Request: fold
Amino acid sequence: MAGTLEWQLATVTAVRDETATVRTFTLGLPAWQGHRPGQHVDVRLTAADGYSVERSYSIASEPERPDAIDVTVERIPDGEVSPFLHDVVVPGDRLEVRGPIGGYFVWGASLGGPLLLVAGGSGVVPLMAMIRHRERAGRDVRTRLLFSSRHAEEIIYRAELDELAARNDGLEVVHTLTRSSPPGWTGYTRRIDDRMLGEVLEPLGIGARTYICGPTALVEVAANALVRLGLPPDRVRTERFGPTGT
Amino acid sequence: MSGRFVTRGFVGRRGGTGAGSDPDAEVASRTPPGQYLTRDFPVLSAGPTPRTPLDRWSLRVEGLVREPVSWTWKEFLALPVRDWVVDISCVTKWTKLDMRWRGVSVDTLLERVELDPSAAFLVAWSDGGYTTNLPLGDVLNGQAFVAYEYDGRPLSPEHGGPARLVVPGRYFWKSAKWIRGLRLQAEDEPGFWESLGYHNRGDQWREERYSGD
Reply:
């Protein structure tokens, strides 16, 4: 990353509900330098008296799209920024943004595969940028996404993931639901564990490039299990959010 | 762009997250720019958590020293120790006040070696390959320590146990988890995040988050 990451004024050009608590904002960025899938941006909100807050949000869109990015934001009930984004921001609003940020949790088609993606909840967002990029630039990369959600109606990007997987072009999506599952559900119905990871990894082999994003507990379980299954630790890249719970 | 832009409709809640809310001015004065207060202790790591058995653990001081020195876990625990209560700021925007640690001052470690006069920087290196760089001036005189207890308990692996560097005056990525060595150098050498777009110094009070800030 060269030079200073300047704050830019983005214009919100679209707002879309993904689930009841997750929303995607399309940000028009005339001076966007481009990003790599997996990177994030900082968003800054400033009040009239100068009080300001910043948060980081993962980019959900592929870099092939010019002059705009999507950020997908989960509404944290006691948060300060995400409720504002959900409850106040509408198309036409402007937001201060800078980025892209992060140079490790990134994947591009030139890195190749096979690719194993493991997501918990809104941890799917940076992985979605990788999946969308793959569709545009790396369809020959065999890819499996293991995606843990609590309930079926909380699965982020479900329709798009179904559609992409239905192309049978080397992307497979495996869901697990940890709290409830609808009648006829054929995916897993438990928290991610060693056996599940072993089954999902098996067709890819231990040469898989692996990206895991989600709550800390999920990331710890998944990363440790994959190392035990034989993946070299430096092939397992992680991004975590939330406390340890202890 | 200056900070003059005002976000339509934003008033703000002031003073951080619900858990950490505190209108007290002293608390506000301890929160660096762009940070929010939390009472959680979030975990951020770039890869799997390494687990080195204590009987194979050692801490080494090497590089521009007359004689490198290495401590086993038992020897490390026998070094003079002290308690620290410090505020920590992570570049991902959280700040946690009054974190209670026990550990060995970097001063204590460096007193056990004879530094080459040209030594001006150090690289902290860790299990798993992580590195971070600091000028000596950022770690001497009680500014940094190697912690092995947090809040009265052994430091958990997720938080960098058995031992991590803690440099409260810099963003938390400088506080290398799973530390195994300090290498003294004449020249600065960017570490892991410092090579991936993050600021070389990382002073949270100057908001030195990213390269070029």
